[in-house]
């Protein structure tokens, strides 16, 4: 029953909310984020714990700002998933040098975009997909009907969604070998056997090896980037860094570099990171035949 009524119901909710002006959605998000900061909750506790790990002297105001930004992200998601006016969406993001990406693509070895769960990462797919053919890796939810719905909602004319499984990885490889763009959130905890332990803000975190393997296979250029959320109604600012050197062959060394780059980007806007994500958890072993959730 849920498989039949779930997609249309969620679609209607997203489209109704997504039809609202972005300024209003951000304002609503700030309000609900503030509510989440005021009341006890497991996400808030996890956010405080991880924030303390990264910034031992953090203030309660920093946690409040982080919770407010989570609220904004949740409401912004409806906007970015449902809008299809590419020129209008593109105008909301300020980037000082798109030529960097053009030059990397001209090498015809592909481009790997890495973004932590930071700022409004949900806009990166639609924005880059409006400019270039691209494929974005995503972690499928446990409910099968949601996977199909997410793919339908997030896909664009030039943007393909690839689930984080063997089929999705093959899609990423094909995309890179065609000299195109792929996008990955490398601060997700990978399944057991597909990562190594590497420090993240001074604590071991199970980190994917996929990025290193994909670059070694294709010779792709790697960019670390994030879309910083400006004041309400003021759009977003794209921060980016091109990694000039290839990742080392040693998986743990490569993972350490990636985590360091993630830390550097997060340090630019720490209040906009999803601190409530359980970055330090231990993945379940393959013997359980279960994949870790988001």
UniProtKB/TrEMBL annotation:
Cite the NCBIfam families for this sequence: PRK08905.1
Q: What is its main location?
A: membrane
Origin organism lineage:
Bacteria, Pseudomonadati, Pseudomonadota, Betaproteobacteria, Burkholderiales
| Keywords assigned by UniProt, alphabetized | Acyltransferase, Cell inner membrane, Cell membrane, Membrane, Transferase
Which cellular components does GO assign to this protein? Answer: plasma membrane
| Transmembrane recorded as keyword | no
Q: Which domain of life is it from?
A: Bacteria
Q: Where, per UniProt, does this protein localize?
A: Cell inner membrane
Q: Does the keyword Transmembrane helix apply?
A: no
Any Pfam family the entry gives = Lip_A_acyltrans
**GO MF annotations in UniProt:** acyltransferase activity
Which protein are we looking at? Lysophospholipid acyltransferase family protein
Quick one: a GO biological-process term for this protein? glycolipid biosynthetic process
Q: Which organism is it from?
A: Zwartia hollandica
